[in-house]
Amino acid sequence: MKISFLGAGWLGFPLALEFQKAFPEAQIAASTTTAEKVQELNKAGFKGILLRFPERVMELPSEILESDLLVLSIPPMSRRQPPSYHANQIQSLLNLIPNSTRVIYTSSTSVYPDLSQTFTEDFLISENQTGHAGIWHAEQSVLQHASHNLIFRLAGLCGYDRFLARHFSGKKNLTNGNWPVNLVHRDDVIRAIKQVFSLQRSGIYNVCAPEHPGKQEYYTQQCLQYGLELPIYSPDLSAGKIISSAKLMSEPGFSFLFPDPRQFTYTRTSLQV
User: Fold this and answer.
1) CATH topology of domain 75-160+182-210+242-259
2) Which of 37, 69, 153, 174 has the largest CB neighbor count within 10 A?
3) Alpha-carbon gap, residue 260 to 184, rounded angstroms
């Protein structure tokens, strides 16, 4: 089997390492945007590829074109580019990929609109009712490319060096304190993708820790636990959305290692403000 990872970054690299363990006979290629990371990928036993993604991709290396499985883990760059940029990236990539290639796309739960309700994969998202039009269009491209493709809508990624509480520490007049957090540890994302793929599933899966403490409770508790200055929230009775992972949890062989965000583990350096 030939496997390619487009975007071997914070999530894609450890995910590729897990697939390497699960499929030791597979030929695995992985792309990165820096020459230094290419060397790191080669040392890990992959075919490292230096590859940058413009808005419209016109060509791809043969290692990627010949893949049996293609994992797309490319961030949408929402803060720097319009929503159409990421949508065009994914569509142009898929235009080059044979329909026989199975595609896994790491999407985001930000595709759900900001409504105070629980969201499952059955919720009908449209261009006019989505939290991120670019991601929604990218998802549509993946689904239309082939019926065997997989989309994982990932909640806020945490764990290791991603300790979100440090961004709220010491802040004042924060809003939406009652809104539930929708977070997931990277280890659970990797386990979910590997397990669902091994079951030969297709379609869409939410990946979010099933416990949802409120933002004020959660970030205050995290700052207390790690000795950081507390955040200050303004009184707010509004509610927010909850992302359900019931579909994922119903799959045989899968359970969350970290069902409660309050129990996430981190590297020591990430705890510094």
Assistant:
1) Rossmann fold (3.40.50)
2) 153
3) 9
* SS3 readout for 153-193: EECEEEEECECHHHHCCCCCCECCCCCECCEEEHHHHHHHH
Per-residue pLDDT of the chain (273 residues; tens, 9 = 90+): 999 999 999 999 999 999 999 999 999 999 999 999 999 999 999 999 999 888 898 999 999 999 999 999 998 887 788 889 999 999 999 999 999 999 999 999 999 999 999 999 999 999 999 999 999 999 999 999 999 999 999 999 999 999 999 999 999 999 999 999 999 999 999 999 999 999 999 999 999 999 999 999 999 999 999 999 999 999 988 899 999 999 999 999 999 999 999 999 998 766 665
One-letter amino acid at 71 equals: V
Which conformational region is residue 176 in: left (phi greater than 0), alpha (psi within -120 to 50 degrees), or beta? left
* Single-letter amino acid, residue 64: I
Report the DSSP beta bridge partners of residue 50.
Answer: 32
> Which tokens belong to 186?
């990277």
Burial of residue 251, with CB atoms counted within 10 A of its CB: 0-12 exposed, 13-18 middle, 19 or more buried? middle
Nearest to 248 by CA among 153, 159, 157, 180: 153
Residue type, 155: A
Q: CA nearest 169: which of 221, 125, 207, 120?
A: 221
What's the Cα-to-Cα distance from 72 to each of 23, 30, 166, 179, rounded to whole Å? Answer: 18, 10, 29, 30
Is 50 within 8 Å of 7 (Cβ atoms)? Answer: no
Asked if 249 contacts 255 with a C-beta cutoff of 8 angstroms, the reply is yes
